[in-house]
Amino acid sequence: MSIQENKFQAIISHAKEYGFVFQSSEIYDGLSAVYDYGPYGSELKKNIRDHWWKSMTQLHENIVGVDAAIFMHPTTWKASGHVDNFSDPMIDNKDSKKRYRVDHLIEAHADKLIEGGKADEAKALLDAMEQLLGKDDYAGLKQLIEDNNVVCTISGTKNWTDIRQFNLMFDTKLGSVTDEADTIYLRPETAQGIFVNFLNVQKTARMKVPFGIAQTGKAFRNEIVARQFIFRMREFEQMEMQFFVRPGTEGEWYKYWKEARLKWHLELGIPQDKYRFHDHVKLAFYAKEACDIEFDFPMGFKEVEGIHSRTDHDLSQHQKFSKKKMNYFDNDVDEATGKPYGNYIPYVIETSIGLDRMFLLIMCSAYEEEKWAKEDGSEDSRVVLHIPAKLAPNKLAILPLLKKDGLPEIARELMNECKSQFKCFYEEKDAIGRRYRRQDAIGTPFCVTIDHQTKEDQTVTIRYRDSMAQERIHISKVKELVLNAIA
Ligand code: ATP
Fold it and tell me: Is domain 87-165 in CATH 3.40.30.10, yes or no?
């Protein structure tokens, strides 16, 4: 196993051991590519969601939210193209019966070439794949797989089927009647709940183009997956924003959102060299421009967020299928003609980020195994999660040194003062060093210890997670210090 694979496995184990992520229905041996979030995981996930929501809606006067249902009228997915086109090219190995997504199979082979020092060969292979995917040339892709001796990881053979398309949508039945007409889909993206509500939102919130609609929520895809933990799930959560603009201005807004979204990531304190843009070569026929923000996960650079310039495709399709007008009337005056811009279907820039992938990104960038020499020459170590303070599950741990002498009472008073403002954790048990280590492992940025000196001069020891530095501060300053750090 490479160092990076080891790190990924260590993060997965840590996530389970410390109550971040569990396999779904674990007592029944789990359900493939479905996961549950534990006590600290659900806090971290909520904090990421809230942070995104605040930066989109509270900090942009021209973006409002919706919370649309997961079930939608089935025609939605006809109009959006998902019924006919939401499929991935797949190939099966006839010996192992294992099914692969063609791009994943080729990318995994390219990774092996890179590990073997053949980076040029890997690049040529990936370039050829992009070209063939762009042309939907499945015979060519199969040939590429055979020519490059790509083998199945299980059977080790090259005994491949032809490449076929598989739709990724889950379907189910609405009501008790089981005829075809009642088939509905679990939404594969949240975006369509925004498009179908475009005019409801525009009118009721009295929005003027340019404006955006944000939404967070569950999405479902019947993915073909290989051990990727929460990177690729069958049930996951998206945070999407559709920004409606006047046709002709989409180029500048695409650039704006590309920069704004990268800035959002960097403001969390994650180094710039961990990120890169990947501009799409293969564009959907309606798309003008599209890119991914990729992060350097332990398994390499992978997409965490997509930014897409989608023209008026979605609104036009819904207009066509629903026969309801999706026009917006723009009474701003066009300087060139001296007349109002008038009626049009707005163009759309979409920003779409996976909440679970962002969670994994935070865990991967935060996780560190540290070792250092103590004064007596022996070695000490810890596992620490350097989670940005505003996203950390617990912000402050309040730890009375002893369970007696009035120390718990003082600690409880501080707890009562702080707990309505941010998430605090109280613990009396165990040696203080062990208590610090447990908080490091779940990413708590601040611990305060109440000791006998506190009774004399009202000072406490505050310990900083990242530096492990400790200092004494007045107990009345603790709340403010934490509030400043998470603002
Ligand atoms: P990929 O190429 O990885 O399958 P995609 O390009 O199909 O992703 P989009 O449809 O653009 O993804 O979805 C937007 C975001 O939703 C992605 O950037 C990703 O963060 C998240 N996402 C998509 N599919 C999944 C999944 N199966 N599990 C977790 N997150 C996902």
Answer: no
For residue range 435-480, what is the model confidence (pLDDT) as tens digits?
Answer: 999 999 999 999 999 999 999 999 999 999 999 999 999 999 999 9
Instruction: Find the mean pLDDT for residues 174-182.
Output: 66
Our mutation pick for probing the ligand 1 site, out of 77, 223, 235, 238, counting the most ligand atoms within 8 A of Cβ, is 238
Domains 38-86+168-363 and 394-486 share a fold: no
* Residue in 132, 21, 16 with CA at minimum distance from that of residue 359: 21
pLDDT attached to residue 282: 77
Q: Which among 292, 213, 216 has a CA at the least distance from the CA of 245?
A: 213
Name the band, by pLDDT with cuts 50, 70 and 90, for residue 337: very high
Least confident span in 224-233, 287-296, 335-344 = 224-233
Q: DSSP string of 400-469?
A: ESSSSTTHHHHHHHHHHHHTTTS-EEE---S-HHHHHHHHHHHT-SEEEEE-HHHHHH-EEEEEETTT--
pLDDT per residue as tens digits for the range 276-292: 999 998 787 788 999 99
- Tell how strand 396-400 and strand 424-426 pair up: parallel
Bridge-based pairing of strands 183-185 and 171-173 is: antiparallel
Tell me which residue has its CA closest to atom 14 in ligand 1: 352
Confidence band of 226 (pLDDT split at 50, 70, 90): low
- Calpha distance 175→173 (Å, rounded): 6
Q: Where are the domains of the chain?
A: 38-86+168-363, 87-165, 394-486
Q: Which residues line ligand 1 (CB under 6 A)?
A: 189, 221, 223, 232-233, 236, 238, 303-306, 352-354, 356-357
CATH no. of 38-86+168-363 = 3.30.930.10
Return the SS3 of 271.
coil
Exposed e or buried b per residue across 451-486, where buried means at least 16 C-beta atoms within 10 angstroms of its C-beta = beebeeeebbbbbebeeeeeeeeebeebbeebeebb
pTM of this structure:
0.91
In terms of Cα–Cα distance, which of 208, 257, 263 is closest to 64? 208
| CATH-assigned architecture of domain 394-486 | 3-Layer(aba) Sandwich (3.40)
pLDDT tier, 177 (very low <50, low <70, confident <90, very high otherwise) = low
pLDDT mean across residues, the chain: 94
C-alpha 14 – ligand 1 centre gap (Å): 24
Is 470 in contact with 461 (CB distance < 8 Å)? Answer: yes
Instruction: Give the pairing of strands 289-297 and 275-279.
Output: antiparallel
Report whether pLDDT(180) > 60: no
Residue type, 374: K
Distance 231 CA to ligand 1 centre (A): 9
